[in-house]
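Pinned message: reference record for ABC transporter substrate-binding protein
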Amino acid sequence: MDRRQFIGGVAALASASVSMPALAQGARTEISFFYPVAVGGPITKLIDTYAADFEKANSTIKVNPIYAGTYQETIVKALTAHKSGTPPVTSVLLSTDMFTLIDEDAIVPIDNFVKTDEDRKWLSGFFPGFMQNSQTGGKTWGVPFQRSTIVLYWNKDLFREAGLDPEKPPTTWQEQVEFAQKLTKRDASGNVTQWGIQIPSSGFPYWLFQALTTQAGVILANPEGTRTAFNAPEAVEALQYWVDLSTKHKVQPPGIVEWGTTPRDFFERKVAMIWTTTGNLTNVRTNAKFPFGVGMLPSHKKPGSPTGGGNFYISNKADPAQQQAAFEFIRWITTPERAAQWSIETGYVAVTPAAYQMPVMQKYVSEFPPAAVARDQLEYAVAELSTHENQRVTKALNDGLQAALTGTKQPAQALNDAQAEAERILRPYR
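Predicted structure (tokens):
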């Protein structure tokens, strides 16, 4: 949540007003749109449809979606394009990339385009929890779009087979272990045929870990993104619990649990409980051939999950007409009606309370109550880990987590090493 780039912002503010008549007079403005694909399901088809629908309603603007890979790949491509002088006009990137994008002078504040009472009402309408990773230094740098929390999914049939109430998930760390022990199955040779639980440790291990640290009672970074607390005692306790699921309790696969294959393992009944993003909700609903439950994550000292997912950003190097066109598209796609539809079609949390008042959303939640779980968990949510040089800092933590989960290092040593590296990276920003 950092600053810099006022000069570019002021220039865009001064010239954005010039672009409005161009749009009004029918000049066709093209905007390139980088979009990452991070979950299963036909997301790209949905984005193509939204872009086409926007163009029907806004004939002077052409939106060109470009599917740029994972979040990590997309930020690299976006920054590379920025440095070469031809960045996408708008991108959906992790909300936690905000500091990096500001430090690289790659984005312009959204506030520059907020001019009317309607604009201000729109910008103030997002869930406050999502704005923690969208604002800093008194400015708004990103607009929440595909946002999430981590939730627990469980197979009700397997609960029933294990003698557990299929309607009641574990609510504490201890219960989670006890349930997972009952849900883990072994053959006559002692080989596991069904795991009790999987908490993925590839892709976004820091994010899953942050759920555990939140529940243990520690926040991993300060709001300014200049300090971390990776080796706090509560963080060590959280990592020890995660490691123990495999090494002590033997209810989770050993080593690295893959992010991408965890939903498939759930569909194939290889695992009874999984932690993953609510952004996989529609994927699970479509592909799970058994009754499943969705619940808030189990608590320890407290309940909680980090928020997650992507924000819209506008390039600082786009011309004023393109910036204004991107703003129009972002406003259009995040209206309550479309935020509700996007949530229904993907499983991501609708980013505004108003979206949940839409009749289509009220009908959906009444027919499919799991759709409200992630929204309700926002009450206990914290900002996702975000710092300056976020990719490097989270890599230090991810490396430490994976070292502990593979048995290369003890949890305390792994987190001490991660903290030392984060200190080295962040010291110049203090």
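Pinned by admin. Summary line: Residues 6-24 form the longest helix (19 residues).
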